[in-house]
Every structure is written in C-alpha cells, then in structure tokens.
Design a protein that fits this description.
Elements: E1 2-8, E2 13-19, E3 24-32, E4 40-45, E5 48-53, H1 59-72, E6 82-89, E7 100-101, H2 104-112, H3 120-134, E8 140-144, H4 154-157, H5 163-169, H6 178-192, E9 198-204, E10 208-214, E11 217-221, H7 244-252, H8 256-265, H9 268-273, H10 279-287, H11 291-314, E12 320-324, H12 325-330, H13 332-341, E13 361-362, E14 372-374, H14 379-391
This protein binds adenosine monophosphate (AMP).
C-alpha cells in the first residue's frame, strides 16, 4: 500500500510517501513559507534533492504541487494509487487515545482542541482540509501527539491545583511527542522481542521530553498541560516556579503573554548560554572555554538525569534507557554527561560505543546495570503505519 504521511505547520507542509508494509520511503519533501512570500519546496527522490521556488499562497497550492510531483516523477501513475493519508495532529485533548480515521465528528473534536493548542491544531487542520478537498476519496487518518499519554493514571496526570480547573477546563498533564515515544518503544521492544519492557525514553531535540513506559502504558511524561514543562530545552525553560511570571511582568513591564513567550522562545540553552539554542554551537562554546555554554549544557543534562532517576523509581527499575531526536541521536557529549550523572543507577556508558551518530545501537558497557540504546525516531513512519493498520 502507498501511504502518505503529512505534517502541516502554519507555513509549512512536510510529507513522506511510504510503501507499506515494506517501510520503503518513495519520496519525501517540505513546502516552506506557505502564504508568507518567497515560498519554495524541496523534494528528496532516489537519493537526489530538488529545490523549486514557487508561489504558495496557501496549503491547497502546496498539495497541488505535491500531487503534480508524484505524477511527473512517476512515483504513481494515477493518484488513485494512494491508499491513505496520515496526518499529524498535535492535540487530541482527552478525546483521542489512539489514531482514528478522519470524519466530520473527528474534525469537530479536533477543532474543539484548538484552545489547548492554538498554534498547532489550526495548522494541522488546514493541512487535512487541503488534502480532503483535493483527494476526497482517499481515507485520511489523524495521529495525535497526545494520544499515547492518555494511558497515564489520574494521580500522574493531575496537578495539585483546584480539582475544578480539571473538571471545568481540562487543566491536566497531556504530554507531547507521543508518536515519537511510541515509535521508539515499539522499536526497542522488537529488538528485545518483549512487548512488556519497562523503558525510559529520552527524546532530546530542540523540544525535549522524557517518557516512562511499562508494557506499552505511559506512567509519566515530562511535558505537561503544554510543551513548556519538564526538562530544559533548546529555547524552553522546562519546569519553573510560576510565581516568577508576575514578578518578571512587574520588573520588565511585560504582559503575561510576553513572559510566557520568553519562557518558550528565549530560555533553555539559548537563555542560559546567551549564545544559541543549538547544542552544536553550545558544544563549540564549551571547547572554546565559554563558561555559560558549559553551564547551559550541565543544566540540561542534570534536568534529564534527575527525571531518569525519578522514572527509574516509578518503573520499579527500568529494563532499558533510550535516547532519540536531534541531541539524543547525535550528541555524544550530552549522552555521556547524562550517563555519568546516573551512575548511581549502575549505568555505564561505553565511550567507544557512544562515539556514534544517528544509528540504532547500544551505547552502554556490558557492566551497565541498565542497557542504554540510541533509537533514531521516525514519526513519519509511525503515522504511516497507523494509517496502514486502520485502513488495511
Ligand atoms: P530536533 O528538534 O529533534 O530536530 O533536534 C534539533 C537539535 O538537535 C538541534 O537544535 C541541535 O541542538 C541538535 N543536534 C543536531 N545534530 C547535532 C550534533 N551533531 N551534535 C549535537 N547536537 C546536534
């Protein structure tokens, strides 16, 4: 079956076409700057990268170019050969605990979740609408970032705030990156031939979250009501004392929204180092003796290590620890530093095995009490596989 995996942002649209169940990637690409001028798209096909500058007024224009590329490059002879389209949806609220075939009811429920994800959900829904009007006869599936975490227990997803906030407004921990956490969990379970594994997955990229999973059930995840919570990230603060918000509002004469914006976009590695949100720049800074870069990296690693210790306790001892996403897959310094900070758990990172990037591999020594792996994430494939399972 040919399944298209789609991730629509407010001004971008990423896609990958898979042949399933073979997991073969046929073509992929990204449309950028949709509706904001100087738009273009890039396509990866047969190992080659093509860039085209085109006028993309809206997502419908992007979908039209996408369909033309599929036909012109003979990826398909006819658009009817597409069997299904899977869409990433950031927020499914409490309504969706798994992926679903999209119908009017699903679209209505996803629209109701807009107040929980005011930037992402409208963009995701715009993408869905564009494909639904262009290809109305092809089944479309919604895959939610929040769905995997719906298996958390009440005492783990509730905050210590007035219970009515939850009842009236849905204030609770939702968690994000669920599709990535689920993909990594599935992959490591396949490796161990055991679907009951107790895993701590560390998704550390520009946005980061950890997830404790026992036999496919999420026990806890570090992001919360929004993606701002949890560990220190590229530009997000992670956990803070909320009382600093009105304090800074007064001191800097800012609105609440402006301070939240600072916490989302000017904090984390960027805010602490004053240099960059990108850990490659932070690592360069460390090599050049920049103290604030060292501090930023130490703080990020400590916040991850401390959550690993908590999650190890929640799981009653993890079977495996996994690293994924930009830093998790590529930064040996980050993995090594985190490893040394959890040595009390008996974790030993093997320096030589850890000298690797973006590859599924074990990086712990044979003497490590908990094995540690790099598992490159693939949310696009997970979206396509969910679509395949629902429509086959
Ligand atoms: P993601 O959000 O998963 O795409 O991760 C993006 C982040 O991964 C970047 O901002 C970098 O900080 C980090 N990253 C990517 N490649 C490397 C690398 N080779 N070394 C260190 N960090 C990297």
């Amino acid at each position: 079956m040919k399944i298209l995996s789609v991730n629509a942002g407010s001004s971008s649209l990423k896609f990958t076409l898979f042949e399933l169940p073979e997991k073969k990637e046929l073509i992929s690409g990204t449309f950028e700057k949709i509706g904001i001028g100087n738009s273009f798209y890039t396509i990866k096909l047969n190992g080659e990268k093509i860039k085209r500058e085109v006028d993309l007024k809206n997502h419908e224009d992007a979908v039209k170019h996408l369909m033309d590329e599929l036909l012109e490059n003979k990826v398909v002879e006819n658009l009817d050969e597409l069997d299904g389209i899977g869409h990433r949806l950031v927020h499914g609220g409490q309504k969706f605990s798994e992926s679903v075939i999209i119908n009017d009811e699903v679209l209505k429920a996803a629209t109701e979740c807009i107040e929980l994800a005011p930037i992402h959900n409208p963009a995701n829904i715009t993408g869905i609408s564009a494909f639904m009007s262009a290809l109305p006869n092809i089944p479309q599936v919604a895959v939610f970032d929040t769905a995997f975490h719906q298996s958390m227990d009440r005492e783990d997803y509730l905050y210590g705030v007035p219970y009515e906030w939850y009842e009236k407004y849905g204030v609770r921990r939702y968690g994000f990156h669920g599709t990535s956490h689920r993909y990594v969990y599935k992959t490591i379970c396949e490796e161990f031939k055991n679907d009951k594994l107790k895993v701590i997955n560390c998704h550390i990229g520009n946005g980061s979250s950890l997830c404790a999973i026992n036999a496919g059930k999420v026990l806890h995840t570090t992001m919360g009501f929004t993606p701002l919570a949890g560990v220190i990230m590229g530009t997000r603060s992670g956990d803070i004392d909320p009382s600093m918000i009105p304090f800074i509002m007064k001191k800097e004469n800012k609105t609440c929204e402006q301070v939240i914006d600072d916490l989302n976009k000017k904090s984390g590695l960027l805010g602490i180092s004053g240099v960059s949100s990108d850990s490659r720049d932070i690592e360069d800074g460390i090599e050049n003796g920049n103290d604030r870069c060292m501090l930023a990296n130490d703080m990020l690693c400590k916040s991850v290590a401390n959550y690993i210790a908590v999650y190890n306790n929640m799981l009653g001892g993890a079977d495996v620890i996994t690293f994924t996403a930009g830093l998790g897959e590529n930064s040996k310094l980050t993995r090594e530093t985190i490893g040394s900070l959890i040595s009390s758990l008996g974790v030993v990172i093997d320096k030589e095995k850890n000298d690797v990037r973006g590859k599924f591999t074990k990086i712990s020594g044979d003497d490590s009490k908990i094995p540690v792996y790099i598992v490159p994430t693939n949310e696009e494939l997970m979206i396509a596989e969910d679509t395949y399972e629902l429509i086959k």
